[in-house]
Structure formats: structure tokens, C-alpha cells
């Protein structure tokens, strides 16, 4: 995920999350839509619905929101902020790999659990809180349809991430 680099190299993105985007930023969001589409189809084909419905729902929301940014060349900066959430995915995926390898009782798993929780708070919970705040503070500058999509997206993603955080805490720290 290159979104932090985009903000560092193009600070104007942080001032205008609606109409400004650096060269390559639009492509990054478009590639992300492709990734979420591919992962969505892969889950549909290779997993049972009761195992993956939450992630399928998550991917659907992301595909719609990022798709709007890609199609209309608007809110690309906002989508880049949302991609910060995916930094934590590295540690969530590593956790799954360690679980599948039956390495739960190892130092590596324990260290990953701590880093996973830390990055979860910083890159998921704090980022989603900041995005919700930004959307609320800028509601007068956001067209009603875009505001509705953003509000619904945040209303779906925030509780999903809080529930997942609780599950991670319970599973890795309060067994």
C-alpha cells in the first residue's frame, strides 16, 4: 500500500481530498478496486458463504466507494486515506497464515498479535474515526449523493471493524 507515500510526496492531497490527486493516485485506487473485485470473486468461488459473508460485504462497500472515486475522478484523496486501513491487513493476513501453520504458541505469533493490535488501532480505528469526522465537518461541501454513500460506507465499516477488534482481543489476549 503506497498511500502514506502519496501524502508525503504530494502534501496538497491532505488539503483537498475531493478534487486533487497526484499522478498515480488515481491508478492506485483503480488497482485497489481491481484487487477487491478479484478477492471478492475468489471468495465467492472458493469459500463457503457463512465463512466469508462479512468480508464479501466489506469488499462490496469498498468496491462501490472506490469505484465512484475512480469513475468520477473525485474523492481520490479520501480513498487514499481509506487505503491506510490496509496497512493493518499485512498483520491480519500474517496472523491467518500463522494460525493455519499451527504456530499459535510461538513468539512470532505473539509478536504479530501485539503489532496487529497496535496497527489495528492506528490504521483502522483511528483512520475510520478521522474519515467519519472529516465527512461530518465537510458535509456542506459534499454533494448529497456522495455524502450519503460516504455516510453509509462509514456506518457499515466502523462497526464491522470494532467487532473484529473485539474478536481479535478476545481470541489473542483474553483466552
Automatic annotation (TrEMBL):
Keywords: Membrane, Transmembrane, Transmembrane helix. It comes from the Eukaryota. PROSITE patterns: TLC (PS50922). GO terms for cellular component: plasma membrane. It is found in: Membrane. The keyword RNA-binding does not apply. The lineage of its organism: Eukaryota, Metazoa, Chordata, Craniata, Vertebrata. It is a multi-pass membrane protein. This is TLCD2 protein. SMART domains: TLC (SM00724). It comes from Pardalotus punctatus. Residues 1-175 form the TLC domain. The gene is Tlcd2. One of its GO terms (biological process) is membrane assembly. Its main location: membrane. The chain crosses the membrane at residues 53-72, 78-94, 114-133, 145-169. Pfam families: TRAM_LAG1_CLN8.
